[in-house]
Specification:
The complex is a heterodimer. Chain A is mainly β. Chain A is 0% helix and 51% strand. Chain B is mainly β. In chain B, a hairpin with a 4-residue loop joins strand 10 (87-95) and strand 11 (100-103). Chain B is globular and about 40 Å long. The chains are: A mainly beta, B mainly beta.
Amino acid sequence: GAVVSQHPSRVICKSGTSVKIECRSLDFQATTMFWYRQFPKKSLMLMATSNEGSKATYEQGVEKDKFLINHASLTLSTLTVTSAHPEDSSFYICSARDKAFSNQPQHFGDGTRLSIL
Amino acid sequence: AQSVTQPDIHITVSEGASLELRCNYSYGATPYLFWYVQSPGQGLQLLLKYFSGDTLVQGIKGFEAEFKRSQSSFNLRKPSVHWSDAAEYFCAVGYTGGFKTIFGAGTRLFVKA
C-alpha cells in the first residue's frame, strides 16, 4: 500500500534552533501534502496544506514565518520550525494525497516528536 | 462550518465484548467520512472510509461503521474487542475540492481483561 515516510521520528534540540522535518511519499506522487500538529491527548490540528510547486496554504492562527513549508517535488515536503521554543514542542504529522487517486483518503506518516529544551 | 464530534473522551470495554464509538458530523453536503486508529507515539492508520453507496462499511481488523444521514452519524462498531484494539480512535470528515480533512477530538479505548 501507499507509504509516507516522515523523518526524523524524534528530535530534541535547544531553544532558538531551527528544525526541519521531511515528509516523503515513497511509492506514489503527491501533489498535495498536509501538515498537522497534535498536542498531548488532543486531536490533530491542520496547520497547512502544501501544494507542489506553489506556496503553502496556512490555516488561521498558524504563523507562516514560524512554520516554513516547502514542497519542491511530487514526493517531498518539508516543514521547518524556525527559532523553535518550548511551546513549539509537539507531535507533528504529515499526510499526502496520491495524485493518481485524488478521491482517496490521505496517507499518514508516523509523526515526528519534537521536544525543545 | 464543518465539525466532527466524538462525544466520548474515553471508553472501557472488556475483552470479547462489543464496541461502539460514536461520531457526529456537521457538513452541508455529502461528506467523505473516515475512521482512523492511532497507537501511542504513532501516526494514523485508516480503518475504513465512506464516500457513497452502501451505508454499512466494512474495514480492517473486523471494524465496521454505518453512515446515517438522518442522524449525521458515522458510528464505529466491532462485535468482539481484542486487547490489541486499545488505542485512540479518530473520526474524520473530508471536504472541499482540496480534500481537507478535519478530525474529531478522539476517543481513547481501554480494554480490560
